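Before surveying the methods themselves, let us examine one representative protein, pairing a chain with its fold in token form.
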Amino acid sequence: MLDSLLQSSTSVSLLGATVVLLVLHLLYSTFSSQENGTEPPGPKRLPLLGNLLQVDLKRLDSALFDLSKKYGPVFTVYFGLKKVVVLAGYRTVKQALVNHAEEFGDREVTPIFYDFNKGHGILFSNGDSWKEMRRFALTTLRDFGMGKRISEGKIIEECNYLTEEFEQHEGKAFNNTRAINYASSNIISALMFGKRFEYKDPDLQTMVERDHETIHLTGSVSILIYNIFPWLGPCLKNWRDLMRNVEDGIADAKRIIADLKETLNPEMCRCFVDAFLTRKQSLEESGIKDSHYHDDNLMYSVMNLFAAGTDTTGNSLQWCLLFMAKYPHIQDQVQEELSRVVGSRQVRVEDRKNLPYTDAVIHESQRLANIVPMAIPHKTSQDITFQGYFIKEGTTVFPLLTSVLYDESEWESPHTFNPSHFLDGEGNFIRRDAFMPFSAGRRACPGESLARMELFLFFTSLLQRFRFTPPPGVTEDELDLTPVVGFTLTPSPHELCAVSRQ
């Protein structure tokens, strides 16, 4: 009887304490906003849950885009007690990420992102370590030819391997996802590790499949919930699977780095890992302590660049080919232009300026595919008044790239596949400022120039050699453009025929 009363009393006390804390939190939030200025508007929130019941977590970018039409280009939502400011539309996102790059330039390291990298590496870090690792990555990758002719040669070589892989199917329907991912992975592998892998290599297959699963699971509803309530982690299968992937990825990265370390020659730098190890060795010999060049930054930077360099380019190329099979009249025009301008010789990067329609089709594919709909979350580095609203230092910010790539004030027909978005009245290619698939500002994709080169050369090489069609018995109208939603948007599982044009 006494135990029962004590338990009941304890429960009531805990409930009362929780209610008091919630009230204090709401009062503090209200007082703080009134004291500092007007905070961005947003839907009314529930205690503890915030706005979780008002958004579709299965397609969060679309739900937030819809809310922007009611609350404006700068608005607030709450995920549990977590406050998030959403930026919507080209003008607002550009103003924040480019014109106020410093204030909106920090990374929001969510619980799952911390689990991935422990604050090290390039993608999920801040401060001096991030600045040095990003600077080193950009400089080193450029030294090894990122965006230059030396990269072009590696990509053209890989185009031949990919073409051979497609030819083996002899025009029959197949799923091209793995072959495309292996090809794009080999380009970043050449820069990171100084070598490419055979497509049948189990190490390549394991790394690519694991990274693909990780990127998919990271955008799942259960992981979004985990970021709000981290104590739920061990109870969630997706979190346990992600942690297993992280451990396996670390083991693979350590093995590859150890192999390169054994044959390191500072006089003959072969790749990114060599450059990092040489810099680390030089600093240690100079007696410099507390350097950012340590094993964790090397390992996580390698993992970041390998995963990002594989997924985004491979994903974009899959969408390009799917759009060509879906819209055969557009494929016809691309192939006519390639035949007229290039003929049967190998396409080179310098041909891009003479292939305006082809270039427009690639850009439109990236725009409509919208593969990274919300970018990686940002965080304000200081208090800022933005478009008349006060946003406190440390506030999580979602730059909604969906709202940029589908902005009705920037694109004539934002929800349809229309290469004319990138062509003037004379058929010349035109750049559009609202084309932001790589994000913008301080946190823009560091591999953008490489990705653009890869996508152009892979796409044109494949369109020179093959005509892409739906499988027998499937019409163009029946090809499904509904994406599979993860952290990135990938095409639904599908098969296409690659019919030789020779």
About this structure: DSSP finds 16 helices and twelve strands in the chain. The first strand starts at residue 74 and ends at 79. Residues 2-36 form the longest helix (35 residues).
